[in-house]
Amino acid sequence: MKKLFLLLLFGSCSLMVWAQTNSSAPKSPERDVGQGSDHFYFSGTTSRQLVYYGNVWVTNSQGKLTCGRLTLDLPPENSKDERPTNVLAETNVVIDYIKNGRTNHVTCDKMINVYRVVNAVTNDTFTFTGHARVSNGNGWMSGEPLVYDNVTGHFTGTGIETHFSLPSTSDNGTNASTNNVTSPFNFFK
Known about the structure:
With about 190 residues, the protein is mainly beta. It has one helix and twelve strands; from the N terminus they run H-E-E-E-E-E-E-E-E-E-E-E-E. Strands 1, 2, 3, 4, 5, 6, 7, 8, 9, 10, 11 and 12 form a twelve-stranded antiparallel β-sheet that branches. The N and C termini lie close together (about 10 Å).
């Protein structure tokens, strides 16, 4: 998941994105890599900010993001790092991504990604708020907020509720996979 959000949000939203202004958003993007929205705005003079709004979608071969509005703060001009420093996805945020062959599904009202490298230390977090919920084949978790640290690969949050699916039992009525019981520690593996 470390690079998934990066690839999902930024791989397809390179500096050429303003060439797709006012493109129609398909209901379900079929392309491997792409992005679009009903409207687009780029402020390159002072803030270097990209804003997509109205049926926003971003997709690549690993997953997709849809929302009502997506704002990206680009790094300063001539920066060696091309990643946006802040990303804000708002209104009906849905993220589907594949990790280890399993589809993960994130829903929330708002997602905030903050990326900074200070003194060679990378800080890269995703904060999900407003009915935040993450689910996959193992179960689901919700919290307010849910915070994913993209460097460590850990979720944290307040008021977290988690539900897991236990492994099925064998034909003879015994639980042959007791050592593999699903737990919070392997939820997203």
